[in-house]
Design goal:
The complex is a heterodimer. By secondary structure, chain A is an alpha+beta fold. Chain A contains 8 helices and 20 strands. Chain B has helices at about 10-35, 50-60, 60-90, 95-110, 115-125, 130-135, 150-175, 180-190, 195-205, 205-220, 225-230, 240-250, 255-280; strands at about 35-40, 45. Chain B has a domain at about 65-250 and about 270-280: Orthogonal Bundle (MetI-like fold), CATH 1.10.3720.10. Helices cover about 75% and strands about 0% of the residues of chain B. By secondary structure, chain B is mainly alpha-helical. Chain B contains 13 helices and 2 strands; from the N terminus they run H-E-E-H-H-H-H-H-H-H-H-H-H-H-H. The relative contact order of chain B is 0.13. In chain B, strands 1-2 form a two-stranded antiparallel sheet. The radius of gyration of chain B is 24 Å and the shape is globular. The chains are: A alpha+beta, B mainly alpha. The interface between A and B is medium-sized, with 23 and 21 residues.
Chain lengths: ~350, ~290
């Protein structure tokens, strides 16, 4: 089983929503579509589902061309950001609805709904109607409806975005388990890099209607093919600076920070990308570099400290473990872990042989 | 905590209190006052207790008017609500058509009620009216001023023309507030058009429809101006609905006591029906 987009393109009027895309999703995988709002995640999912037709290109499922085949005939299910359930059905009937329409035997329905409800912890509230449930429970019901069908393709369009923090964390941890041992392809759209890392599987980074990179989630995270992909997959945003390489010494162009690298790269100008958690208030690893900065904002997020600072024309963010209070305007010293630097050339491609 | 005592605040309530007193409490109390007394003019009143209420509740005339009124309201609701929903469902969802439809739909609502009555009176006249003349030319024996069936037909048609748009506009607003994802989810399930209407659109429109039904119930149950101008309650008493009958009794015959008693009964019927209906509809709505 596989789902393949071949040269898929979507235009509405003069506007291109999806640029020519090739993507192959394999059997029994979870695939995260990671990108900001309006990057084209929803459009791409609707094309995958068959809710929308591509302007050009083809969709192949199981080595069959299914472009133009209606969604009802594709055995697809979808969960949305909004909690979509039938308002006048109770939870049981909501979960059972896709089965009833396809005419599954009523004992079988009872059996399957019972199992899915158990899995999603909905058993105690099978007789309640959606408006009597919390947001989390409503979304669980919607998930149960998607799971009960044994679809070949399950699409989740930012399913956790409308939940409050605690419920989101809770459901996010359960999600990967729900799809274990299922014979299907799961596509999960999200704006949050942390979602992708937690879910694992495969990730495709999307930027302005283009898929920048597709691969195993950790590989995409550790070895982004370009600056764009790295930026999409970094929250808080990645810190970027121009650097100069001469011999085996690299130095920031805007400040007199320099470090040694072992590389056969040609001398010249490059860009360095540093994830916020690799700039900390304490030394990490033997190759820490000191950088000074003026504190712009200092905020606590749980047990982590975010410090926004400036250094010349650099406007960076650092993320340290533990509580580190800084005063706004204060000059401070921070440490960059140069082992974790990502190097890009002037055309924003990752430089591999570092 | 120390509360500031400032009795001047009461001054600010006075205007509202005076307004409500003049437009609601005092007139209502006057009616209540009349309902229990008899007068022959000259400001001489005699206590009658509940006599007028008994008289009205037992009178054939009131029963007939109430019967006509209930029948009229039921017909109106059974035509206007489904028709309004149907039109709202077929209205365009985007583009220039939306504004065109909305403006066209609002037009009848903007016309003063007695103008509507006068328009339809002329429109339906069997000799010179377009509708009346055409119907007769087509071979129908149509004369709303003489045949009660025709008078009913014309009154209902007029009210449907005048008020269906209100239901359309409310239903349309309700439909537009349904997120597109609901339709997509139903499409994925393979739900039929009827299921989408029955299980998504109708439940999502429940609140606006409750309001639409309440408004249409109240307005049609208290209808006066349009049938008064169109038929004057005739022929005979065929279209003398409650309020037309009430005005006849109060002003035509100057039976202030019975008319006041009838007003109160009328008022309580409307109030009770609305209250019961609203509570039934909202019973299972929960917090959301």
């Amino acid at each position: 089983m596989s789902l393949e987009l071949r040269n898929v393109e979507k235009k509405i009027g003069q506007e291109t929503h999806i640029y020519e895309t090739n993507l192959k999703l394999e059997k029994n995988t979870i695939n995260v579509l990671l990108g900001s709002t309006l990057a084209g995640k929803t459009t791409l999912m609707q094309i995958m589902a068959g809710l929308d037709k591509p302007t050009n290109g083809e969709i192949w499922f199981n080595e069959k061309n299914v472009t133009g085949v209606k969604v009802q005939k594709r055995n697809v299910s979808m969960v949305y950001q909004q909690f979509i359930n039938y308002p006048n059905f109770n939870v049981y009937d909501n979960i059972a609805s896709p089965l009833k329409i396809t005419g599954v035997d009523s004992n079988e329905i009872k059996n399957r709904v019972g199992k899915v409800a158990e899995l999603l912890k909905l058993s105690p509230m099978l007789n309640k109607r959606p408006n009597e449930l919390s947001g989390g429970q409503q979304q669980r019901t919607a998930l149960a409806r998607a799971l009960v069908k044994d679809s070949d393709l399950i699409l989740l369009d930012e399913p956790l975005a409308n939940l409050d923090f605690k419920l989101r964390e809770e459901l996010r941890e359960e999600l990967p388990k729900l799809f274990e041992d299922r014979d299907c392809i799961v596509v999960y759209a999200t704006t949050e890099p942390s979602d992708a890392l937690l879910i694992g599987g495969y990730t495709a980074t999307l930027l302005e209607g283009k898929i920048v990179q597709h691969g195993k989630t950790l590989e995409v995270y550790n070895k982004p093919n370009s600056l764009q992909s790295a930026q999409v997959f970094s929250d808080p945003p990645m810190n970027i600076a121009k650097i100069k390489k001469e011999g085996d010494v690299c130095s920031l162009i805007s400040d007199d920070v320099s470090w040694k690298i072992n590389s056969k790269l040609k001398d010249g100008e490059y860009k360095v990308g540093i994830r916020p958690h690799n700039i900390t208030t304490y030394k990490e690893g033997p190759n820490s570099l000191e950088i000074s900065g003026k504190v712009l904002i200092s905020e606590l997020s749980g047990s982590e400290s975010l410090i926004h600072f400036t250094n010349g024309d650099l406007n960076w963010v650092s993320l340290s473990n533990g509580i580190h209070q800084k005063n706004v305007g204060e000059q401070t010293k921070l440490f960059m872990n140069s082992d974790e630097f990502l190097y890009f050339d002037v055309s924003n491609k990752l430089v591999n042989n570092v | 905590m120390n509360k500031t005592v400032n009795q001047k605040a009461w001054l600010f309530v006075i205007p509202v209190f005076v307004l409500v007193a003049f437009n609601a409490i005092i007139p209502l109390m006057t009616v209540v006052n009349y309902a229990f007394q008899e007068t022959f003019g000259n400001n001489v009143f005699m206590w009658e207790g509940t006599r007028w209420f008994k008289q009205i509740l037992l009178s054939d005339r009131f029963h007939a008017a109430l019967g006509r009124q209930i029948l009229f309201t039921l017909i109106i609701l059974f035509i206007q609500i489904p028709l309004g929903i149907f039109i709202a469902l077929t209205m365009p969802k985007e583009g220039i058509g939306v504004s065109v439809c909305l403006v066209l739909m609002s037009m009848p609502l903007l016309i003063p009620w007695n103008v509507v009555g006068a328009m339809w009176n002329i429109f339906a006249l069997p000799d010179i009216g377009f509708l009346g003349h055409s119907l007769n030319a087509l071979g129908f024996d149509y004369n709303f001023t003489q045949q009660s069936g025709d008078a009913w037909f014309t009154t209902v048609l007029m009210d449907v023309w005048h008020w269906t748009s209100l239901v359309v506009l409310l239903s349309y607003a309700g439909l537009r507030s349904i997120q597109p994802a609901y339709y997509q989810a139903a499409e994925i399930d393979g739900a039929s058009r009827w299921s989408v209407f029955r299980h998504i659109e109708l439940p999502k429109m429940k609140k606006v429809l409750t309001i639409a039904i309440l408004l249409r119930f109240m307005d049609s149950f208290m209808i006066y101006t349009e049938p008064f101008v169109l038929t004057g309650g005739g022929p005979g008493n065929a279209t003398a609905f409650l309020s037309i009958d009430l005005v006849k009794m109060a002003l035509g015959q100057f039976d202030l006591g019975p008319a006041a008693a009838m007003s109160l009964i009328y008022f309580f019927i409307v109030l009770t029906v609305c209250w019961v209906f609203y509570n039934l509809m909202m019973k299972n709505e929960g917090q959301s």
